[in-house]
Amino acid sequence: MSAVKVAKAALRTEIEKKLALLSPEERRRQSKIVVEKLFSLPKFKEAKNVSVYLSMDNEIDTEPIVRKLFEQGKGCFVPRVNFRYRKAGMEMVKLRDMEDWENLPLTKWNIKQPYLKDERENALDAGLDLLVVPGVAFTKDGLRLGHGAGYYDKYQRKLRDVLEVPPTSIAVGFKEQIVDEVPIEDTDVTVDLVLYDD
User: Residue 40 maps to which CATH number?
Assistant: First the structure.
């Protein structure tokens, strides 16, 4: 294993320990602040189609983002990964409404995700204005440490190849996830903006 991969694994462990100490109340408090920051951005207000990850317990809660997108009549796209065939990568597919969100099945990682067999509009066809990105750790200037599978790095590269104007990428995280440096490799893709409770 390369020195960078070892450093990444160590940082993931360090951040996981910090996040484990956060109370549910503190998670909710920070999530509310970060989500409000996102809503106040001109990029969010102007966006017609937005991709947002569906959060787990140790991540900024994205349900209010999904709700806001439907309230404002924006297109809401969510990740779908074929975990059996990882080389297929990740795609972003359209959610119809909050009832659709509520009825999504859970993967073995306890993440909501549309069924692979569901016919849904793809963000690559519709176009995306904004990509809300998860991660384990971030620097203030946009370096990002993901969970290790590389799905978001590959997807951002694909967006840059396919779309004439790629979407703005915004990472959202707890302040405990903000670090001075992130070990990176050539395949890692930075994000345009990092939002956290500062």
Answer: 3.40.50.10420
